[in-house]
What we know:
By secondary structure, the first copy, chain A, is mainly alpha-helical. Chain A has helices at 2-10, 14-22, 26-34, 40-47, 50-59, 62-71, 74-83, 86-95, 98-107, 110-120, 127-130, 144-154, 179-184, 191-194, 208-218, 238-256, 271-298, 300-305, 307-311, 313-336, 345-378, 385-415, 425-447, and strands at residues 137-138, 163-167, 173-178, 202-203, 222-226, 232-237.
Amino acid sequence: MNEKILELLKSKDYSALKALLAGENPQDIASAITKLDEEQIPIVFRVLPKELAAEAFVEMDPDGQELLIKSFSDVQLKQLFDELYLDDTVDIIEEMPANVVKRILRSTDLETRCQINELLHYPEDSAGSIMTTEYVTLRPAMTVEEAILRIRRTGIDKETVYTCYVTSSDSILLGVITVKDLLVANDDAIVGDIMDTHVIYAETNQDKENVAREMAKYDFLAIPVVDNEKRLVGIVTFDDAIDVIEDEATEDIEKMAAILPSDKPYLKTGVLDTWKKRIPWLLLLMISATFTGQIITNFESALAGSVALTAFIPMLMDTGGNSGSQASVTIIRGLALQEINMKDILNILWKELRVSLLCGVSLACANFAKIMLVDNLVFHNSVSVPIAAVVCITLVVVVFCAKLVGSTLPILAKRIGFDPAVMASPFITTIVDAISLLVYFNIAKLMITNL
Amino acid sequence: MNEKILELLKSKDYSALKALLAGENPQDIASAITKLDEEQIPIVFRVLPKELAAEAFVEMDPDGQELLIKSFSDVQLKQLFDELYLDDTVDIIEEMPANVVKRILRSTDLETRCQINELLHYPEDSAGSIMTTEYVTLRPAMTVEEAILRIRRTGIDKETVYTCYVTSSDSILLGVITVKDLLVANDDAIVGDIMDTHVIYAETNQDKENVAREMAKYDFLAIPVVDNEKRLVGIVTFDDAIDVIEDEATEDIEKMAAILPSDKPYLKTGVLDTWKKRIPWLLLLMISATFTGQIITNFESALAGSVALTAFIPMLMDTGGNSGSQASVTIIRGLALQEINMKDILNILWKELRVSLLCGVSLACANFAKIMLVDNLVFHNSVSVPIAAVVCITLVVVVFCAKLVGSTLPILAKRIGFDPAVMASPFITTIVDAISLLVYFNIAKLMITNL
């Protein structure tokens, strides 16, 4: 599409450009526009039909949006923001610098401005911050025919019409009814009789991840959001829920890899910002490795006496780290998906205990065979049987400790109100390293008398 | 809810039980039923209204479903499966043992059985495997009034009616139209005139993750699936897309932690199965640590001369591993979300190069200060300045190498058709460990003359 746009821009054939773009999806138009030169963007944007222009605008990145807003006259700005859904307007305002925000707010009418301000005041991760205030409400006394008529009259600028909310005159949420229910019902049935009164709703301050998972669980297109007097104040739609679920997965993955979460895509983040997201954990983990170093220093004499012992340190540390992170990551994801609860902790411990013994013993056997066949016969390292035994016994103990630490720490973190995702590989690895070395050297001292 | 159900079961007050359950959501009923005793489940299930029973059945876990199916007469089984959507039936069949599958297939009519068999034959991760064949089709010549009438007549047992598909008489997909479009249009408008002909569709063999992301990108409620002659054969609905997105995130997280992906929740997986998912990578990674051990053995004399050098091995290995996995995990997630493409590789390398220098230098400075102040003054380890210098220079080189390896391996893996997620922390750590030690010992030999 991009080449065609450039061609038509060059030949100034704007009517052909208009025809070309009118058939495209807003998402594709947005990504095509972003690739144009700065001075071409407003030209292309102006040939778009009003509604499509608004939809494409929402899909652009903040830099492109800012550029466009600055190129607009006040009238054009007003036209654009009249077309936008309120939740999208709020999302855009949150990304813009103060002077642009002022222009946007000036271009909206008083009522909209009040609603925007209200939405802006919900905490960042709350249901309120992602809800929209545009939805269809019905009254319980309406007939199906009246309800359908109301949807047909008012639905045109609502984000979703497929789930309608039945409220009392003071906005208390009484029930929900889907357009499908209305369409398959008789014209003269009463909304209050056929609506679903067992409504599952979210509260404005509820965590948005929570709300999104609830929606995924119940397969909801939209979920109503109520204030603390059970008055309907907004809805969260499925497209925002999908975004929340994707973002939360990304955030967890970043935390698990010892990165501070960022809300910009990788290629859009500057070098300095990337550094800022990565260096804190690297520093902290580096400093905490002091303990591991200290353990080695304390066993200096043992190591000087047998360098063969040193050669197995990396293998023991890595295997411990990997075993621990397998357990921790499984538990962290289970907690995030709400498959695992606090009360399962004994269950989990009992299971990890058995898994860790199975893993530890199989690794120890494989390792003993490897030392005897590969290290001694192929590489001629002459590792003595006692040292091989020390390494293998350590393996069993290390895998056991690693699995226990890996499975309990995330749960404990959650218990005391921390994010379990932080208790993933790098953190566990540092703890398990120290355990591995302590176990290793003590077993070595115990079993090899001349150390 | 559970206590109430138990109470009513005890007093055999089935009509009160029926009234209680009729107002609940199928998901909640399913989870309540699962907690009951085996002989209570069929009793509770039988008091549910037909449609609700089917919806709750779909939400139960395979063990509960199997138990129920076995307790049903053939007539009851037929009634149940008549209520189910075809894609749910196929999902259930995939989980059941052969003898149960036979009973289910016997209870469906010939046409349904053919459709089930067809759906069962799509590859496991394809769009075809998650699509449903129940949707509303319209013809281009219909008026809006006729279209709405058709939806009202046929929509009752379709999974979604909100997106309708306009097809020619030989099932070729011509356009889509939403119920919202129909509701806000005039009664006598022609479907062919107002439908959207720029249809985004999936193909039966397309990867389901791909399709789900496409739907998330375009905010689709449903996406049509066509065969290779562009005939409409099914649709994928948003609830299945959300499940795919969650499952794929879980799978990637598992792979990143060196676990073979499993499709059962943690608490439902047996000890032996958990072991089987975890041991292959542990074994492989343990065996590959042979190289790191070999490097240490080769530098035996250097290490015997200065145990202080050994004390920094864990810190260097861990920092290298953490730096590498930060880069690899960022790239892996970027690739999964399609934010990063093959052609960005030079961009990424140039960026990681600068980030790695920033990280490396800041870590080296912090580490030098730490060695001088903490190790020497607090712990009295007497680390000489040359050794501190060797450690800090090694840090810079190791972080540099780790970031480059971490950012390029996932992209190369994708290039040659491997799953990038496998190139995460554990794998990168093993490679970076070997690099760290080689760099460390060689710099030490170069800078400290008496080694």
